[in-house]
Amino acid sequence: MRHCINCCVQLFPEDTHKQQVACQGGPHHSHQACPTCKGENKILFRVDGKQMNLLAVLEVRTEGNENWGGFLRFRKGKRCSLVFGLIIMTLVMASYILSGAHQELLISSPFHYGGFPSNPSVMDGENPSDVKEHHYQPSVNNISYVKDYPSIKLIIDSIAARIEFTTRQLPDLQDLKRQELHMFSVIPSKFLPTSKSPCWYEEFSGRNTTDPYLTNSYVLYSKRFRSTFDALRKVFWGHLSHAQGKHFRLRCLPHFYIIGQPKCGTTDLYDRLRLHPEVKFSAIKEPHWWTRKRFGIVRLRDGLRDRYPVEDYLDLFDLAAHQIHQGLQAASAEQPSKMNKIIIGEASASTMWDNNAWTFFYDNSTDGEPPFLTQDFIHAFQPEAKLIVMLRDPVERLYSDYLYFASSNKSADDFHEKVTEALQLFENCMLDYSLRACVYNNTLNNAMPVRLQVGLYAVYLLDWLTVFSKEQFLILRLEDHASNVKYTMHKVFQFLNLGPLSEKQEALMTKNPASNTRRPEDRSLGPMWPITQKILREFYGPFNTKLAQVLDDEAFAWKTT
């Protein structure tokens, strides 16, 4: 009867295979790599030539047909060997637990122990209620990730060394028209002088039995919008203008846009601002038309659908247009030149940053940078548009974004590993392309497991400032909004030239609880690990510094939040 038990134990990753146990011949004191596990972070047992990667399993197999007597004789003859093997396994388990390395006992991570490609010269390669002080507790997992920090720091340094904020080349108007012929044929170059919002009348050729929203893509592709359009149908014919036997409908674009960023409190700002009687928003809070729907994108992973025409987007402002039309009709008889005070807003948080569709529709430039951006088209029609941006510490923004969009297995460990993977991918791009090319790289953005690029505020803002003036922006911080909602809302009112509110209206607007706060199940997960926070602070640091310089406000450096 022959029993073969081989054990290969790696106790400490940084001291690879210095301690091994081979049950056949006693301890090996050689420091050479173990041929059994080939350098992997595993605990392997070889039983009769079979590898097993479990600590608490020991299979003993006999050759031939053995009876119970043989088995008993085996127990008497090999009891010491078995006891010795069990003692070794117990000591191994205890050493892993006591050393704080039990995370690596069963889980092997591709990001541990210097597995990052880095600088080739060095290596061969949310909302208001979410803003609060975190009290971190030390953990075994966090201690393990600290060991990875030197490798990750090399990646961050490699990225920082390649950061260059360059001025983009602007397309001319004729190039824009060639890209969007239909849009330019629908939206006029001039708007009604008596409306603060950009509005105009266009002929409606349908009959009174015609459904004006029959082909609207927002209705066709989303059941949740159908009730909204049912309400619009009921009042549509009562808000047409009639002249010379023709019907005319008022069309409008937004006077202002809340353009970003996601998980920075835009929903809370939207919910409060729409309580002002002079403000009317689109029928859908976030149409995402400029960035996605006009390209036929609902979800990129689902592929492209039919493009949503500009008429479908304009339909979303019909409720506001009806009220503006009524005001214009009433004023025409008494004060024809009186300005209508109603302003229209739109709050798609993707407008500032999401240009992922450009690679599908625009000719690729030689340097990998998009030839056209969303702001180029908005400016072509609305050079006087007002733009509101709500930002927060990008480190906290990313964690909030992760908790909101991740579907399963959410944890501080998972977030840390996704961050390190995203940094690696971003560095790989920066080795070959410019900062702007990587920020707007659709393939990279879809590959990164967390939306690291959304927090690069300075890159996006500088590109917007190439077409809009700084005076057309109101840039807010979520941290300030969370601490003083009343002050923030007054700044918004002043920026939009809105009329004053009554005490009751103002109290309702400022005392309502925050919108779109972190879910209870996400709160229970706790904060990110301190080492993850340190890594992200170092990555976002140069971008925050640039943003603070552009805005001449050190608060946007988020050195203390």
From TrEMBL:
SUPFAM superfamilies: P-loop containing nucleoside triphosphate hydrolases. It holds the Pfam family Sulfotransfer_1. It comes from the Eukaryota. It catalyses: dermatan 4'-sulfate + n 3'-phosphoadenylyl sulfate = dermatan 4',6'-bissulfate + n adenosine 3',5'-bisphosphate + n H(+); chondroitin 4'-sulfate + n 3'-phosphoadenylyl sulfate = chondroitin 4',6'-bissulfate + n adenosine 3',5'-bisphosphate + n H(+). It is a single-pass type II membrane protein. Its cofactor is a divalent metal cation; glutathione. This is Sulfotransferase.
